Batch of 2 targets.
Target 1
Amino acid sequence: GQNIDQPTEMTATEGAIVQINCTYQTSGFNGLFWYQQHAGEAPTFLSYNVLDGLEEKGRFSSFLSRSKGYSYLLLKELQMKDSASYLCAVLQGDYKLSFGAGTTVTVRA
Amino acid sequence: GAVVSQHPSWVICKSGTSVKIECRSLDFQATTMFWYRQFPKQSLMLMATSNEGSKATYEQGVEKDKFLINHASLTLSTLTVTSAHPEDSSFYICSAQVGEVTEAFFGQGTRLTVV
């Protein structure tokens, strides 16, 4: 089976930084994804980490430690449009994605 | 980016009836399509994986006779919830993949309510 944990909710101020943690215990680990999902819309791809370390992409960065079963998504210079649900997903094998329940981030002015 | 269209966005049906949900890749041919279900406050759960022209592979605990999947072409997969019951009320979402799993694109989801 798999166990993927992330906080349910986080709130931050516009312009600030927020870090969303994700811990996992899964079999057949083949990488970790982060998706953004606005209410009523499709999840959109943010990042994919398969090796340990930090991947930076503009205001968003993602970190992975395979030995610790841990990842985080870092959102910098928060904007109101960043208010959304952020999904952590582990790739098992070639194609199966196992998702966490998602973290709802609310950005306040 | 690539677009996956899911239809309908929401549907209400009576208990005992069947509902069909369509998932289309609009501007690419998808080698594989996936169907997920999400209950409130819970994670997206993979239900089944389908490849064009072959039978779907269902995850453990998902009834293949209740959730019929037809992947007739490289751009269309359908999920039919047969003899729907109120406990089938959920958010159903598809994704279409071309090549590597990093190129998987999600539809906007279908909110099914069975009354």
Target 2
Amino acid sequence: DTGVSQDPRHKITKRGQNVTFRCDPISEHNRLYWYRQTLGQGPEFLTYFQNEAQLEKSRLLSDRFSAERPKGSFSTLEIQRTEQGDSAMYLCASSRQGMGSPLHFGNGTRLTVT
Amino acid sequence: QKEVEQNSGPLSVPEGAIASLNCTYSDRGSQSFFWYRQYSGKSPELIMSIYSNGDKEDGRFTAQLNKASQYVSLLIRDSQPSDSATYLCAVNIGGSQGNLIFGKGTKLSVKP
């Protein structure tokens, strides 16, 4: 169990640019989640996958955000035309299938939009 | 809007005391409940999970669940300065297959 891995750890970008983050889940976990967290707030759900299928997306998720998990292993989260309000910690988590399965988080990608 | 509510704190307790952290949730259909600890600048780390009414103990930590009152709590006995962190309550909202809804977290400070 090598844990959930996220890359990069930090990303600074200018407003209007596109950014892409990668997440590698724990190998035996078939569920993968993306959350966003800002200072003083709890993690906010964005979307999750079961294998390669994207099963749920937050209604708050702008259409500038897109996530993929093409082979049911790693996932990417892309933000197009970044805005300053996108600055946050982007957390990836994975779990086994099943409603009671806890999420295990990666170290996150901190995005700063200038 | 399905919600998870926590007092943001800070909650300050002396070393060796019991710290009590509370959480309420809005959806009666919720079935799985978790406590995560988050140190400043780090990602959330799972401490406890609880699925049925009553108490669940793990070392110095006890989780308590009361589904009728829609209330879940975390007790930390013999608090240590290293327990100083933000504690996040997370609830698997009933009807959702997978995602957890998190509270804003309670910041705990344990004074030596």
